[in-house]
Specification:
Number of domains: 1
Largest sheet: none
Number of strands: 0
Shape: flat
Helix content: over 70%
Distance between the termini: 21 Å
Length: 117
Amino acid sequence: MINYLLLFGSVTMTVVASTLLKIGSRTVDFDGGLLAIALGYVSTPTIIAGFASYALAAVLWVYCLSQFDLSYVTFVSSVQYVLLIIVSIFIFQEQISLMRWVGCAFIMIGVVFWLKG
């Protein structure tokens, strides 16, 4: 059971990381040169937290790869799509089109079929 929680934790940490990086990217000046952008990255706490979240997700992911089949963890990671849509709606107030919802539903149906098969 703990392995499944760690797998979900890895997926969740990836979503958290993407969210933090999106929030942090709003404060970085991308009109400057490469050095200015790099300094913006290392001086923005939410970007640093986002990278740390990705690092934790990667550690969990490697552990999960040792416990499950690669094909299994890869398909389970598709849950990220649904979680990211939820974040997009509730945190960033993005509008999600019907076609994107349908696409997401097809992905999730495919994942369920694959996991059951």
